[in-house]
Amino acid sequence: MAEAHQAVAFQFTVTPDGIDLRLSHEALKQIYLSGLHSWKKKFIRFKNGIITGVYPASPSSWLIVVVGVMSTMYAKIDPSLGIIAKINRTLDTTGSMSSQTKHVVSGVLFGTGLWVALIFTMRYSLKVLLSYHGWMFAEHGKMSRATKVWMGMVKLFSGRKPMLYSFQTSLPRLPVPAVRDTVSRYLDSVKPLMKEADFKRMTALAEDFAVSLGPKLQWYLKLKSWWATNYVSDWWEEYIYLRGRGPLMVNSNYYAMDFLYVLPTHIQAARAGNTIHAILLYRRQLDREELKPILLMGSTVPLCSAQWERMFNTSRIPGEETDTIQHVRDSRHIVVFHKGRYFKVWLYHDGRLLRPRELEQQIQRILDDPSEPQAGEAKLAALTAGDRVPWARCRQAHFARGKNKQSLDAVEKAAFFVTLDETEQGYRKEDPDASLDNYAKSLLHGRCFDRWFDKSFTFIVFKNGKIGMNAEHSWADAPIMGHLWECQEVIQASLSSASLLANDVDFHSFPFHAFGKGLIKKSRTSPDAFVQLALQLAHYKDMGKFCLTYEASMTRLFREGRTETVRSCTVESCDFVLAMADPSQTMEQRLRLFKMASEKHQHMYRLAMTGAGIDRHLFCLYVVSKYLAVESPFLKEVLSEPWRLSTSQTPLQQPELFDLEKNTEYVSSGGGFGPVADDGYGVSYILVGENLINFHISSKFSCPDTDSHRFGKHLRQAMTDIIALFGFSSNSRK
């Protein structure tokens, strides 16, 4: 493998004449610059901590308040209602200050206290205001006078120029829904999926749980919600992600694609250098908290920014029972994989970030390097693709000390992982379906040993300049493993199991051009509800039955919120789908049922976003029951139900970066994930601009009942059939 030759700060040897000491000035200079860089980052963090700590006020506002207090005092007006006089008398007991000094100090102390009180008042007022979510349930396109007043109050207390984490302490905590409400919503969600006898049995279990064990478990959840910042997130991260013992590849990790049509350059090294530089500029903004928090409702309502903290310098560390997440505060290198070899690439020189051209030169040297991989090096990353227990045992046995540990640290503590892929990928007009399917599969699993699936993300640059990412879900030239022959058998076993999993993935990725959210909005329908109902119709056409459906929703209106489940298969959606399949139903009857189903879906989505979802509450009640060693037949059955249709919308969070109407070629392909159930589908979609929706459909070849391409055809037809209910044809863009 390529060995990284680094300057040694000093060397010494023992000679007959004594110790011969030779200093390297270049190495000492780099040590000095490294220390300077570290202190700069500490100062920036300290400064940002102060700014964020006093938000929505500003540090300069302290001076304004103090000067105002002092001015009133000199005007012989007491703004403190006697408090300043009491402070003065307390200071008088010291006997070490003059009368004038005590007067000034008393005014400053009162002004500072008043300033702190104002900060807490503004922050608490903002938290109370942000706890209101009635605006989400208003009719689409209409805003009540009360909501307008509320928006004005939020803006008043939100301060100016917020930094990334400015709103964190003002965000409300995720509320714990009432047990009866959750149970009632659960029963409503499974009613269309169960036979009458099964539903009666489940209703009896649910009612018994709601009056017996449920309230006891709920008490513990309430206690946790008062004590912890978020009653769901830490358990969700640990039990759903970190304790999973199966492969991360396909099962957990997801991918993101490049632009669909645009390719800035076909030169692999140039695309890598420019994009790595851009990613590092983003990291610098993130470190300095200069990124703006995401705001909803006309740049009014902030979302939680906590998940940004572990985007870089992060790796998932395998364990026998549970994994852990390792995050380092800073990393000055990346690790690049090419043709089975690992390279450690430094990102700074003389204290500055390498320029795109300099990074391109580094990448080109790697591409031109003729060296062969060392024994076991080429397929080492297969360990991160297979089951977690063998990887954890192998890591403890072979990478716990010495050079192997140093090499593994270089990978796990890198800013991120880069793969220079030897294949060409991307959208090809002459064969759009196969090209996008291959592109998706390559990003999802590659060759099973050319992505480091434990990193927070792997940045992939293909031979033709196309790029993409593979991201780990739980949070993101190195001398790798000098003597790897000891764990060759484990690597091969992990690679074999990972290859079986990768080869079983049936992927279909396609752009839907017929219409987009522009036409859907003209039908006065939520675009997300429209797509979800199309998915229900497509699934029924494909499988001839309904299934439990998972749609991911976010709960980032609350501090440290992550996700919640929207159960998209409802009584209303099933009625609509059956009407579409019944030739005796009129267009008017179908449209009426569609509107009812759409409204129900939007209501369920809003409930999920505002903390009144079903599944996270039931999951946490189940965790408490396990801690208390009590069994609940109801919870056990609920959490064992398979999600045979798992869906997620990829949001466009920075639409201001491109005017998609003027630059139609700059459309994102979005990203996707593998199927959750072996006999089900995984569907991801992104609404791009007004006239395009990109879909990513996954299933498994080993299931005889599923076929991703067949489902895609049904989905296209379902979209067209639904828009026709409104009198629009599929090409009615204007």
From TrEMBL:
SUPFAM superfamilies: CoA-dependent acyltransferases (SSF52777)
UniProt key word Acyltransferase: yes
Pathway field: Lipid metabolism; fatty acid beta-oxidation
Catalytic residues as annotated in Swiss-Prot or TrEMBL: H473 (proton acceptor)
GO molecular function annotations of the record: carnitine O-palmitoyltransferase activity
PANTHER family xref list: CARNITINE O-ACYLTRANSFERASE (PTHR22589), CARNITINE O-PALMITOYLTRANSFERASE 1, LIVER ISOFORM (PTHR22589:SF74)
UniProt name for this protein: Carnitine O-palmitoyltransferase 1, muscle isoform
Species of the source: Myotis myotis
Source taxonomy: Eukaryota, Metazoa, Chordata, Craniata, Vertebrata
